[in-house]
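retry 2 of 3: previous attempt timed out while embedding molybdenum atom. Reduced batch size to 1 and resubmitted. Inputs unchanged:
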Amino acid sequence: MSNAPNFFRRFRRRVFPPKETLTVEQQIKRRTLLSFSAFLVLGAAGWKGWQWLKHQPLDQGLKGGVQEPVRKVLDANEKIFRHTLSPDHMAKTYPVSAATKRVRTNGNIGLATTDFDPAAWKLEVQTAAGGKPFYVTMDEIRRLPKTEIVFDFKCIEGWSMITHWGGVTFSDFMKAYRLEKEAAMNYVGMMTPDQDYYVGIDMASALHPQTLLCYEMNGEPLPMSHGYPLRLIIPVKYGIKSLKRVGTIYFSEERPDDYWFERGYDYYSGL
Ligand SMILES: Nc1nc2c(c(=O)[nH]1)N[C@H]1C(S)=C(S)[C@@H](COP(=O)(O)O)O[C@H]1N2
Ligand SMILES: [Mo]
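retry 2 succeeded.
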């Protein structure tokens, strides 16, 4: 037993001989070996963590396809954003002259259908009562008070552009159609006419004074690829929420289905 420390010392000397007794080449070798071992250990830890994360149950409720721990972080983000975003927290605006004339088009989900008939388009609004929906034409929407905004449109993919939009604020629209009960609900959902693209918006952000049901870009009717005849423009959120070509609007206390949320993005997507 009394020999044990000696044994270990000898063992250690053999495996890790003192640096001075090593040639430069051996020293380099040892360093390489050490950092490689560290790499393996850290790598294994990362792998373990990833395995753990992968086997966590998917978060329940909505079809949000991410693991619970990931969702928890996203939900925590949402709380922070909700906190900093009060209705008087405005997105920065710019003079019309700053707006780009060549507006980039991004995403055409829900716009690809060939059987879309612009002349027959009407906005479908489903009320809280759950009865028959009512329909609004483009002429009726154009008669509502018009608001324009020039702001830095940000896509979650990492680009942005200063763009100029015109339409009716969602809040003016709600007032005009006396949707008070609906405005008191938690969420509004919007879908393209073919229901291929859909978003859910918390009511505070929907009623934000810069949120538009938009029918003009650069002073002209929306081009088809930008959501003709009517799209959402919501400057306090990333572009994924600015649904192009609104077909149906509905209201709910629960989070409405959301296309990109189902694919792992943050539901709130606030800026
Ligand atoms: N119907 C529909 N709306 C959509 C999308 C889409 O694919 N389909 N893409 C979104 C995304 S990711 C962005 S960044 C903006 C881009 O708007 P723009 O094409 O007018 O620049 O539209 C959003 N609205
Ligand atoms: Mo985007």
